Amino acid sequence: MITLDLFAGPGGWSHALNVLGVRDVGLEWDEWACKTRAAAGQLTIRTDVAMYPVWPFLERTTGLIASPPCQAWSMAGKRLGLVDQPLVHQAVADLAAGRDTRAKLLASCQDERSLLAAEPMRYLHALNTVGQPEWVAMEEVPDVLPLWRQYGVILRRWGFSVWTGILNAADYGVPQTRKRAILLASRVRTAEPPAPTHAQLAEPDSLFGPGRARWVSMAEALGWGATDRPVPTVCAGGGPGGGPEPFPSGSRKTLSDARDRGTWAPRADGIVLQPRREGAGWAVRHGVRDSRPADTPAPTFTAEAHRWSWSLRSNNQANATVRSIEEPAGTLFFGHRANECTWIAEPVGTPPENETEAAPEPIRITAREAGILQTFPADYPWQGNKGQQFSQIGNAVPPLLAGHLLAPHLRVPLNPDDFTLAA
């Protein structure tokens, strides 16, 4: 028996399943997402989900997962999926009745990707003829919720308990306020959303149950102190053809100045590190131990290091989301904005009299940092150039959110500490 993962991407659902002790088979078309999955040890069939037959999975599938491509529906794109929505609903209704009208409907779509959101129904209809799957979990951008509700009506008719709604990933410990439309369905249990573990403000325990922790901030997830600055790095794969990614404008001088002050130090392998406060709580959360003796003081920062606080700006548009590192990130989305998501510095307090200093230059977010903010491990083996890596990360399901959604279906407990983000 297998868990079938349609549009498997780089492995958000798969990593969660692996943590929970289950393997899946992922169907994915993108070359670099498949290479990432292979490097992560995940079973993958590189194929077009719309063309692959269902018969190999009959009488073998216990769970079905689907996260169709969201570009046609996302607010980051042209949103032609909304224009095509009646056609997608028609395709779902036809497929549920055993009629394949996809070719005719596709010819009328404004965005050929729109109809991919109907593909899970083709698999579900075929699997339902043999009484499978036992459970279903699907995820998409919020505008797809009406389509998930249509799926829900059909699945209930086939004997499933179904829940559909919008969940905020930050409510489940993800350092990102990523909202997604979710469908959960089961033949053997009442489908319902997992209980949130976090809230915007911490909540104490009460007579009605345990309280919720405060949303996880970017600083906490990345292991930064309040005044730490991101470190620009030269990484392979800066453009479409690969190759080194240049530093943002002016950051070479910023980096050299910081080295001169001793606030950043290069390692032998070329990675630039900076001192940061790693208290016991941070070490426990991230699965590492503080190697300093107990009586050793924490590293100190220069006055300049305290003068700037850092925020993440999602893109260079006027209405871009800007969040302090003391908050969760906004929804991470990439593509044509892959190189525009930047750390920016803002002044804190008043500098000493007669001393002026320009703010540090913006520094691009790295794939490693973006992956951590999606709750992938820091050493997750992203493949491809920088643009390809960012595209995979932005389209992925946060593994920690996926774990919360999947654990009840798998009848296994979820331990959030198993999703610690290695430093």
Looking at the structure, the CATH topology of the largest domain is Rossmann fold
Helicity level, as a percent range?
Answer: 25-40%
The portion of residues forming beta strands comes to: 15-25%
Helix tally? 14
As a whole number of angstroms, the C-alpha radius of gyration is 23 Å
Give the C-level CATH assignment of the largest domain. Alpha Beta
Could you tell me the number of beta strands?
17
Q: Which runs of at least 5 residues are low in confidence (pLDDT < 50)?
A: 233-305
Q: How does the major sheet shape up? A: 7 strands, mixed
Using the alpha-carbon principal axes, give the shape.
Answer: globular
Whole-number total of structural domains: 2
Biggest sheet: strands side by side, in what order? 3-2-1-4-5-7-6
Structural class: alpha/beta
- The N- to C-terminal Cα distance equals 35 Å
CATH superfamily of the largest domain: Vaccinia Virus protein VP39
Q: Give the mean pLDDT.
A: 80
CATH architecture of the largest domain: 3-Layer(aba) Sandwich
